[in-house]
Amino acid sequence: MQRGLSGQYEIGSVVGQEEVRAFVPAPLPPDPLPDLAGERGRLHEQALLACGRLDAITALLPEPDLFLYAYVRKEALVSSQIEGTQSSLSDLLLFELEETPGVPFDDVVEVSNYIAALEHGLGRLREGFPLSNRLLREIHERLLARGRGAERQPGSLRRTQNWIGGTRPGNAHFVPPPPQRVESQMADLERFLHDDQQPFSALIKAALAHVQFETIHPFLDGNGRMGRLLIALILHEDRVLHQPLLYLSLYFKQNREEYYRLLDATRREGDWEAWLDFFLEGVLTTANGAVETAHRLLDVFREDREQVEGTGRSAANALRVFHALGTRPVASINDLAERSGVAYPTASRAVEALEGLGILREITGRRRDRVFAYWRYIAVLNEGAEPL
Q: How many Cβ atoms from other residues are within 10 Å of residue 239's Cβ?
């Protein structure tokens, strides 16, 4: 048994013909506690203030569901891209519309599963169910409900050894705890999440818990996505954000090498401070970026609404259809007619008018069953969400 600064190595089970040397992290919080004074303390305060601004903007938005719908989907897309999917935002929105033929099923269904998993977790928290290992298993079951990974024990903690990188534990980049230690390790993590005596804000708790979860790697598949979901769930349960609007997947995607290097540094060197600096900078950058995106989307929506209002007698019906685009920016005429409460011919004329204004674009190239996209809105949302 060789001790590391933030855990210990153990000889686990035999995989193939070799013994497995697995890393078992010490329970949280780190010992000694991370230093939160000085520049790190100021960064922490700035990150908390940025979260407060992001939380406040949802109360000011005239169409908060518009922004929430869009932002959740961007997060799902980027988090899944980190794991190798190649879906685009348009693919996802088309799939949600009618599971459109021709959309790459395996990739898009993983993103759709992510949305279902997040919405289930948030719904349970709003019902008063605690953030617990039982809830994490429920979320995992939805994350791997269909598509790739559906055979990888959805909703169950792993019962076999896994590893990260390499072809076997012996040449792996990192080997998480042996399977017989996973349940007790996750129980320790749950106790940490609900220990009110810890001198940490929810941001610090989320930062520490994310590393611990990724180190335990408790499931056979989906650990990266679950670890990123855990951050949003902690911040929501602790009421840092009333709506799930802070997602770090884009920041992690843009800084992938540094992200993985710092995860390793916490395990091998106990360097929690460097990880916290990175995480808090990510919160600050991401929260400020989300506020800016909200304002830009509102500007786009306002400018285009003013265009529609200037179209004369047909403006009333065109506005009804236009507002329906605000909650779902990719839609068929049937869908728009239903959601705007107008007849199909009326919706069709409105769509034609919106196309003429350059607000809508037809994206299938078909003559029947056409689908239209609110392109400026999607372009703002899509920044940073392009496939890797």
A: 9
